[in-house]
Amino acid sequence: MDVGSLFQTAIALLFVLGLIAGLALLARRAGLGGAMAKPSAGKKRLTVSEVMSLDAKRRLILVRRDDVEHLLLLGLNSETVVETAITPPTDAKGQTS
Fold this sequence. Notes:
Layout: H1 3-29, E1 46-53, E2 59-65, E3 68-74, E4 79-86
Antiparallel strand pairs: 1-2, 2-3, 3-4
């Protein structure tokens, strides 16, 4: 390979990487790729406190709604409520973290 073909290959690689980055940016702006919904103007009632992957197919998710937490087990084809009405821990000032 001569210098010209190496330069042409490098330019082609940069072009393809730029296309991939541009398409990823467009997909994110279009709301694809698992983007979270934007919160409304008022106080949010529903938040995801923590997410823990158990394996490639299952996740534990701690969801908070109105200062009460719920532990969910999500799989590919199933959803299970593991525990409900969990009161979140409080700090020294008596506020929930």
